[in-house]
């Protein structure tokens, strides 16, 4: 069973239903401005961007507003969230967002469908899946990137074996109480997997609430 299909603790992914199937995630509203600011140095002048696990659709709309020369492709595995993404996109009246597509990025064979991406971005996913499935996300992303493309991964991570905060440790423990295979990974685990996949990791970028932005380039 795909880990994105697992039911994480209620605190892991809060989305409030709105009108006509439109979902609103308070955490997405809080963190998107900081993410847009941090990724601005790495978004190309033009090209295509694949967003993995787009969730409610709030992030991709802000990305498309901030970077209008990029064609943004949102994806998710959850049908309710795909519907929400479509509504957020329609309401935004932006022409540089593609129709949301179904994608299980934890599988080991999705990259051939999405080759040639200039940018691949995902937020708050890796702590909700197993190490094996996180490896699939990273290795398949590396294959899907075009030469010179950039991988951007935002979320909470261990620093070696250490938690960045007591809150992070408690959240990790709540995740593992529900499913022992999921939980926080170290940023070093991610960067080692990126290196093994042919990417070149850059220095982690500190983000609010003890999160990190992990950036890696494809030669």
The total number of structural domains is 1
- The CATH homologous superfamily is called Vaccinia Virus protein VP39
Please describe the biggest sheet, giving its number of strands, its sense, and whether it closes into a barrel: 8 strands, mixed
> Roughly how many Å apart are the termini?
34 Å
Rounded mean pLDDT score: 92
Which percent band covers the strand fraction? 15-25%
Radius of gyration: 16 Å
Extract low-pLDDT stretches. 1-5
CATH level 3 topology: Rossmann fold
Architecture, CATH level 2? 3-Layer(aba) Sandwich
Order of helices and strands: EEHEHEHEEHEHHEEE
Task: State the helicity in percent bands.
Answer: 25-40%
- Choose one word for the global shape: globular
Broad CATH class: Alpha Beta
Structural class designation = alpha/beta
Number of strands: 10
Number of helices: 6
């Amino acid at each position: 069973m795909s880990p994105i299909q697992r039911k994480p603790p209620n605190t892991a992914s809060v989305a409030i239903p709105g009108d006509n199937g439109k979902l609103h995630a308070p955490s997405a509203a809080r963190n998107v401005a900081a993410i847009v600011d941090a990724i601005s140095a790495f978004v190309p002048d033009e090209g295509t961007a694949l967003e993995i696990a787009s969730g409610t659709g709030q992030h991709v709309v802000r990305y498309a507003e901030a970077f209008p020369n990029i064609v943004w492709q949102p994806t998710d595995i959850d049908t309710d969230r795909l519907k929400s993404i479509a509504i957020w996109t329609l309401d935004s009246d932006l022409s540089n967002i593609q129709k949301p597509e179904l994608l299980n990025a934890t599988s080991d064979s999705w990259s051939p469908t999405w080759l040639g991406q200039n940018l691949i971005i995902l937020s708050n996913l890796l702590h909700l899946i197993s190490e094996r499935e996180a490896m699939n996300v990273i290795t398949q992303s590396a294959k899907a990137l075009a030469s010179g493309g950039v991988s951007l991964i935002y979320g909470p991570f261990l620093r070696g074996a250490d938690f960045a905060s007591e809150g992070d440790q408690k959240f990790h423990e709540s995740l593992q109480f529900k499913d022992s295979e999921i939980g926080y990974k170290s940023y070093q685990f991610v960067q080692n997997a990126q290196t093994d996949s042919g990417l070149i990791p850059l220095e982690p970028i500190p983000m609010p609430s003890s999160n990190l932005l992990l950036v890696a380039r494809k030669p």
